[in-house]
Design a protein that fits this description.
The structure holds 2 protein chains of 2 kinds. By secondary structure, chain A is mostly helical. Chain A is built from 20 helices and 2 strands. In chain A, strands 1-2 form a two-stranded antiparallel sheet. By secondary structure, chain B is mainly alpha-helical. Chain B has 23 helices and 2 strands. Chain B has a two-stranded antiparallel ribbon with strand order 1-2. In chain B, strand 1 and strand 2 form a beta hairpin. In chain B, helix 5 packs antiparallel against helix 7. Chain B is globular and about 75 Å long. The chains are: A mainly alpha, B mainly alpha. Chains A and B meet through helix 17, helix 18 and helix 20 of A and helix 5, helix 6 and helix 7 of B.
Chain lengths: 500, 527
Amino acid sequence: MNPISLSAADFSWLPILPMAVVAIGAIVVLLAGVHVDDSDSDGLGWLAIATLFLALLLTFGIFGQTGFTFAGAIAMDSFTAYFDVVVLLATMMTVLMSIDYAGRNRMPGAEYYSLIMFSALGMMMMAGAGDLIVIFIGLETMSIAVYVLAGMARRDPKSNEAAIKYFLLGAFSTGFLLYGIALIYGATGTIKIGPLAAAIASGSMNSNALLLPGVGLLLIGFGFKVAAVPFHMWAPDVYEGAPTPVTAFMAVGVKLAAFAGLLRVFLIALGPAAVHWSLVVAVIAALTMTVGNLLAVVQSGIKRMLAYSAIAHAGYLLVGVAAGAGSGGAILYYLLAYSVANLGAFGVVLAIERTGEIGSGKISGLRGLSSRSPMLAAAMTVFMLSLTGVPPLAGFAGKFYLFNAALNQGYTGLVIIGVLNSAVSAYYYFSVLVAMYMQEGGAEESEVRRARPALAAAIGIAALATIAIGMFPQSYIASAENAFHSAAITETQRAVSLAQ
Amino acid sequence: MSSNVLSVLIFLPLVGAGLMLMLRSERATWNAAFLFSLIPLAVSFWVYSQFNPSNGNYQFVESHEWIPSMGISYHIGLDGISLFLVLLTTILISLALLYSGGGDITERPREFCFFMLMLESGLLGALLAVDVFLFYVFWEVMLIPMYFLIGIWGHGRKVYAAIKFVLFTMVGSLLMLVAILYLVYSARVHFDRLSFDLPLLYGVPFTRTEARWLFAAFALAFAIKVPMWPLHTWLPDAHTEAPTAGSVILAGVMLKMGAYGFIRFAIPLFPEVAIEAAPLFMTLAIIGIIFGALVAMIQPDLKRLVAYSSVSHLGFVMLGIFAFNPQGVEGALYQMLNHGVSTGGLFLLVGMLYLRRHTREISEFGGLWHRVPVYASIFMVVMLSSIGLPGLNGFVGEFLIMLGAFLKTGYWTAFAVAGVILGALYMLWAYERVMFGPITKAVNETIRDLTPREVAVMVPVIGLMILMGFFPRTILGTMEPSIDLTFQRVRTMQARLESHHSSPQLAALLPASQRVEMEPRTGATAQ
């Protein structure tokens, strides 16, 4: 190993500017909260959105530049930028959905919004990680904030249960992750993504005896975070118990970040060792899709149904991971498509939820929604069809692209399992349509007001994005493809330059 | 010749669908929807008038890049195979809207018209798509409005019928999607070009095993849609529970998409396997013909009877297609149009009866002839067309199909003829029980005859039947060049298989009479 030598050039602040803005913004929101009453925290929400928007602009500002900073710990490439943009947008949507909700449910606004932002910071850190330690730190920053967020409705026992369950299992799984990192460091002598790949490819590592258990433990750690079978048990309870905007944030943001880390680690760093793990990932993918979809069919609570649906979607994404680096771009695009539709769906769930009753939303609560609130029903239809994968919506383009990539790598069997699972998923997604359009009543079961402006805006944006991303996917596909290649190339270049 | 007329045709109904949502008054909605549906109808007739019948290739072609990084283009075109199905679609949508506004649909008319027009876009898009990805998109798009039409405005177990319809169709089409992806991937390997263009994909060579699996995936999707026995079980539910307009479009156009898929995709893409599988498909078709007819005969519900008659009629279509000879395929295509007109007509008539009595039980009726002479006469004509009476449209199609099947292999035809006889039997028997005899139920004494609006719906149907019965040559002649072109590869393949005797058991299935038909029919095309 080289002795550590650092120069000022190693500490460019430019790449972490968006992260810094989010961090500072989170602190400002927290401090400003001192002067704000819990029932009147909307202003803090708008402040959070403004900060996130600034971070978004900065992300676009530094877009296209590549390199590393903080001695190679932080990577600046299109991959980071892509995930930062999606994570920031998802966070903004979450905050938009939370405005009025947090106040109405008397949640501590300052803590709530700043924790969301800290969590977003952790997600961005995972996306821009140049080594395994930063992935770990990002994961913890994100997770600890989300553990607290899940229990934010302090007086609700379900929320408490969700928080403690998520915390215990989450802490357990990070243990696996960290131990996996340690073993991999032991096997290869490096924790940097690119050099790790080079070390494995060159066969210079000490032995497989350390590497393979390390890979296995990493897989378990990430498996927990993306809720892959058999590490998915926590998801339905936590999703159900957490305040609904937090559930949306977990289903979208946490999944985005976990996949960002997973892609950097498995498809780039451990890519040369793919022969050792791709079969395992393929089996996990098949199980995740099948179990997620089959259990989603029997759910009556809409949040639980969406929780199992999120598990199923993790399964589709893992098909891409199993297929290897060739499907990197497809995974990125799929994540985008999944995120917009899922955010929107949770927005609709939020709109029909009764005040003070988290997780009260039943699928039957949507009955007659089409006559009471046609726009809301139409938006939900778009989200459900997109999640099913019906053209020309984003979900279809995502599945098409992902399955195409997997098929090109020869994973025909896995793709067939995937499409059959899609057919199963049609059953439960369409049951939402049945409730909304083909059954009457339900008004007594849910409190459907006119959706509040902020929430309505969030749902509307999600619906339009779902349609637009699906009908004109070319530019999104191009940036997803470009993002993944950018990460792979910069890491390879770094490995080469370090080797010289 | 305007170059983007087909795009206009596809997206006009969608524009209309959007307009529907802005209307407030119920009456205005119906009028606007019907009047709007006349525009695509007019456009489709204009296209027909400009169509060059001696050209077998795609016409009015339009092609733009859509998702270039995946080789997907917005490529549409029209040939003799799709032309008449397009006309059928635009005609039936207009008639269905005209009918539905007359009291059949009372709830949520705006949404109803929205879904009908959206359905029209989906159907036209699927018929006009040349790019396979585009075809798949429209193929799935048309599923959604039909799902809502059945689920919201249907009768009885409508939700069950709607979801069953969706799940059946989706399983098939998703496997077809995998096959499409595999096909395109192989094309890229072979041609070094990433493209979803159908004409290009025709030329991809496959190993026997690959081709068999791919053909199976395509055939499954299309066989569910047709539907072929034993995949038909969604059909009686969907047809019976759907609102009248839904049944008309479902039977009239949507089932044809399955047969169209065989003609356009499954068979020309994998001719070798299609030839190999022809005995199987012809057997299933025959079973469907007989089974559908027998089950139709014992139905107490008039609409279910018509639904099962569709299984039987579509069996004829499949029989014709898998004969592979010009007579069979032309007959099949012609029969598709006939079935659209006559079964569409029957569903409309059953709907009119239901509107008056709120029942479709055959035993609830009897002796209607005396009370509703106009209705009874129109029903008579439509029924005779469905049976295949010479002089009306049904006869031409059935005759050609049986000729085609006979040329292919003699004894199949005997079964098919049995199907025709059974068809006459159940139809006439049902007609007799509804129309003749004494009036047994007092409510039937006061039953109203057709309103002017309903007559206006049925007149074009009857007109088409007579027109297509007496002048089939115009339509058949327009279809011929395209069919010849599409089935060229199948016939050369068949000829090669036979002459080389590479597959003796296969060659043995082909009678000597087939050889005559394998010559390219250049003479016929030039006429």
